Amino acid sequence: MTIEKQKPAFPLTSIYLCLTAAFFWVLVLCLFPNPVPAGTLPLKPDQHPQADTGHPAAELNDAALKAGIAFRLQTARGGKDTRFQQVTADHVTVIRKLPVQTGPLTVFAVKLKIAPPAPDLSPEFITLVVDQTGTLQFGGIQELATGTDLAKQAVEMLQAVDINDLPAGFGKPVYTGTGPHTIIMISDPFCPHCRRGWEFVKVNLDRLHTLRLAHFPLSPAAETAALVMADAYHREFKVFDIIDFTYTLLDSSRNSLEILSQYINEFPEIAAHWGPTPEDALTYLKKHFLAGVQAEQRTIQTLGIHSTPVFFVNHTFIKGFNEQKMEAAMP
After folding, report:
1. Alpha-carbon gap, residue 236 to 69, rounded angstroms
2. 116, 117, 231, 330: which has the fewest Cβ within 10 Å?
């Protein structure tokens, strides 16, 4: 009987292949320590990895932030207005800050108050998104997969103004009705979104108890329209009609004199009060109402509002015209 010589259970070639494969996977694990197994679903947009809870909560370096803001004002504005060369960190106050966790990165939405370097200047409010060192500003932090601005909600929270912070008698009364709701509107009469907001208000007059309007003109032509409306308030002359004409039919592309010509054509009786020509009218209106219009602008800026429109619907602050939010605030 011939006994065959047994082959080794693990030939040398197999051993070499195993060693080679093992070396390959060790190399892969070193280079890519967290491989995603085949078939693993990617994270959904709202499933951000949590930050290491063992680390202490991030804190904003307030001192560095205030120093950076002061230096920026000195260099950006100091050349045009030497008073800003005197701005220091002591002129900057952190009103409120909200941490925003974006995966492993913590940033802060911050609302700042800039005290005026001169008594004839108004304080300013600004809202920024910065890193925790207070030295880097972010224009926006977007989630790559969806384009969602991760800090937007925090910024909007800081920009909101409490209706209780409005000065007494803020805005001019425009309409009083029998409805349950109150609207205060801050607007530029030539802003297209403000005009859409005015249309919404008109459609819902039967739901209103009070409508007040504050003007924040952002151009010389809009300022001229605000002067006309200020005169209407003062004389109690066709207030609602003049405002409605301003927000609906007035051609906003014209210069100040042509703006006034449109008012004179629509309401010819006002020419006798202003003077016979648009030039006379502009002189009269500036003399009597420009200071008041500009004072209202400064008050609005002091509240931290720099764009239009803004609505206070009952106690809800709404930035920009958003019909769904307006409706939700008027149940």
Report:
1. 45
2. 116
